[in-house]
């Protein structure tokens, strides 16, 4: 991560102000934008080997304090893995923690044994080998811990990183693609801290119910970083790696930007907008033009028309101050040189799942029980009336088949619903489908009492025993029951 000395310099300035004020006001952009280290693996032709270690460390996030963190090949967050469509990857994951963990390749189409879900736990000092062929198009995927009942805490402490896939079609588009220069990861996580600098995970009943949200937002592990733009066109690969918070992203000067990609890769056509919503686990790729040499701030500005929840939840949320405006990142474009890249209107052609090939429809009802269970443990969250049971297979799907899933939210708060092993298209939702939701998705935000329909073609991998997961990606909900298992046969 950042050199300690630079951090302390920034820290001294911050330390002159009361800590909470400096952090909350978000006006001080002085920290350096950090780019997670790029890991291309060892390549022999199309065989690529990655050597990963899940590790614990300490990171300088706050002024003059060290925070105990988790990371992959670095002390906080994971290195960025990057490979090509058509590669065969061999990923060795060593667990150097004193607790069991997993690494799940979120968004990847792959055999169940390679998925890294709760069935592929890695015990302390053990190594797990995940091997699969990359069969999908250029996209911004990610990886994170998926340890049963402990995902939330492990991801909160830093077990999350990007997995970028490239392909020839995408490379042919002349989009910004130089990692760390004009192709930039933006991993967002919100945190709370204890007096001693440690992360403050779950501290209240509200955290348990709504999921853990924090008052301080980090971008690539840094508070309020400033990104010195080298080029006038910047591609931001934004990942919401937060446990529970949904962001409404826009620039403080209302400048337009172009959405080019969603969870599952490039859109068919770039979409110009001023703002977008990004719920936990969603990714979006945007290109922003900073040729004006200005200093725009990317921020979260709550959009109350898009209601975080139903009336009561929203009221509670704003009473608790968990949906105030937050600044994320400032771009300083003074030194940006003219880019020779562009933003084509037409990007790629999608091979859409065909409604005529749908062989099966399923319904997923998301619900939460209020009352004592919510407070004192147990699994108050459910899908189709059942809380997650690792010994129960909920759905059996035919390999290579096309299905429609109808996801109904019967609770008072939104749930970002995720399915492993596939990329789907949203075919019906309240208010219509627009922006990045036009693309391939592996997470869909489902508002209170909303019904969303998605269509997808499952890959051909089959395994009668080892299941994949579908679940709410508010990690506290996932950990406490809002998850189910399916096999593909
Ligand atoms: Cu992002 Cu089941 O995971
Ligand atoms: Cu996943
Ligand atoms: Cu949820």
TrEMBL record:
Q: Which Gene3D superfamilies match?
A: Cupredoxins - blue copper proteins
Q: Which residues form the Plastocyanin-like domain?
A: 54-169, 232-291, 379-488
Per UniProt, the keywords (alphabetical) are:
Metal-binding, Oxidoreductase
Organism encoding this protein: hydrothermal vent metagenome
Q: GO molecular function terms here?
A: copper ion binding; oxidoreductase activity
Keyword set includes Metal-binding: yes
Q: Supply the name of the protein.
A: Multicopper oxidase
């Amino acid at each position: 991560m950042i050199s300690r000395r630079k951090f302390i310099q920034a820290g001294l300035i911050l330390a002159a102000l009361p800590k909470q004020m400096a952090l909350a006001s978000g006006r001080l952009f002085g920290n350096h934008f950090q780019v997670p280290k790029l890991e291309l693996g060892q390549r022999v032709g199309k065989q690529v080997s990655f050597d990963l270690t899940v590790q614990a460390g300490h990171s300088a996030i706050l002024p003059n304090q060290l925070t105990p963190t988790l990371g992959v090949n670095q002390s906080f967050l994971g290195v960025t893995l990057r490979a090509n469509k058509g590669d065969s990857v061999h990923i060795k994951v060593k667990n150097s923690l004193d607790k069991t963990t997993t690494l799940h390749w979120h968004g990847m189409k792959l055999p169940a044994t390679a998925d890294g879900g709760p069935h592929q736990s890695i015990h302390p000092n053990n190594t797990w080998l995940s091997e699969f062929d990359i069969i999908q198009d250029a996209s911004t995927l990610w990886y994170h811990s998926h340890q049963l009942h402990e995902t939330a805490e492990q991801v909160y402490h830093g077990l999350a990183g990007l997995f970028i896939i490239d392909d020839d079609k995408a490379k042919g588009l002349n989009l910004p693609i130089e990692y760390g220069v004009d192709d930039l990861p933006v991993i967002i996580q919100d945190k709370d801290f204890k007096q001693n600098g440690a992360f403050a995970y779950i501290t209240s009943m509200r955290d348990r119910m709504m999921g853990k949200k924090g008052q301080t937002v980090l971008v690539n592990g840094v508070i309020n970083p400033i990104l010195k733009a080298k080029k006038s066109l910047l591609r931001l690969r934004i990942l919401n790696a937060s446990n529970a918070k949904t962001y409404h992203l826009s620039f403080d000067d209302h400048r337009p930007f172009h959405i080019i990609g969603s969870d599952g890769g490039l859109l068919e056509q770039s979409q110009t907008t001023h703002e977008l919503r990004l719920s936990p686990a969603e990714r979006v790729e945007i290109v922003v033009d900073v040729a004006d040499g200005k200093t725009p701030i990317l921020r979260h500005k709550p959009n109350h028309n898009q209601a975080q929840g139903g009336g009561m939840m929203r009221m509670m949320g704003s009473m608790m101050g968990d949906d105030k405006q937050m600044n994320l990142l400032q771009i300083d474009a003074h030194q940006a040189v003219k880019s020779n890249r562009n933003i084509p209107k037409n990007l790629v052609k999608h091979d859409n799942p065909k409604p005529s090939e749908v062989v099966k429809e399923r319904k997923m009802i998301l619900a939460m029980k209020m009352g004592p269970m919510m407070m004192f443990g147990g699994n108050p969250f459910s899908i189709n009336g059942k809380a997650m049971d690792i010994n129960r297979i909920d759905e059996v799907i035919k390999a290579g088949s096309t299905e429609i899933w109808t996801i109904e939210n019967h609770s008072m708060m939104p749930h970002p619903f995720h399915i492993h092993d596939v990329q789907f298209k949203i075919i019906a939702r309240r208010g219509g489908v627009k922006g990045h939701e036009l693309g391939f998705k592996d997470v869909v935000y489902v508002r209170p009492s909303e019904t969303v329909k998605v269509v997808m073609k499952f890959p051909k991998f089959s395994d009668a025993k080892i299941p994949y997961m579908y679940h709410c990606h508010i990690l506290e909900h996932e950990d406490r029951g809002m998850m189910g298992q399916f096999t593909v046969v």
